[in-house]
Amino acid sequence: MASLNLDGVSRRFGNVTALSDVSLHVDDGEFCVLLGPSGCGKSTLLQIVAGLDRQDKGSVLLDGKVVDELAPRERDVAMVFQSYALYPHMTVSQNLGFGLRMRGIAEQKIQHKVQETARLLGIEHLLARKPRQLSGGQRQRVAMGRALVRRPRLFLLDEPLSNLDAQLRINVRLELKRLHRQINTTTIYVTHDQVEAMTLGDKVVVMRQGRVHQIGTPAMIYDQPADTFVASFVGSPMMNLFEGEVIREGKYLRFRCDDFSVDVRKLPKDLMGKTVEIGVRPEDIEFRTNQEANLSARVEMLSNAGAEKYVHARLGRKPITVRASKDATYSAGQVISLFIHPDKLHVFHEGQRI
Amino acid sequence: MKKGWLKKGALVVGVLMAIFFSLVPFLLFVSSAFKTQTQVTAIPPQLWPSFDIDFFRSAIVRYDILGYLVNSIVVAGSTTLVTILLGTLAGYALARLPRPWAHFSLMLILACAMFPQIAIVGPVWQLLRWLGWLNTYQGLVLPYVALTLPLTVWILALFFREMPEELEAAALVDGCSRIEALVKVIVPLSAPGLFTAAILTFIYAWNEFFLALLIVTDPARQTMPVGIALFQGEHTVPWGEIAAASLITTAPLVVLVLLFQQRIVTGLSAGAIKG
Question: What gap in Å lies between CA B117 and CA B187, rounded to an integer?
Answer without folding.
Answer: 32
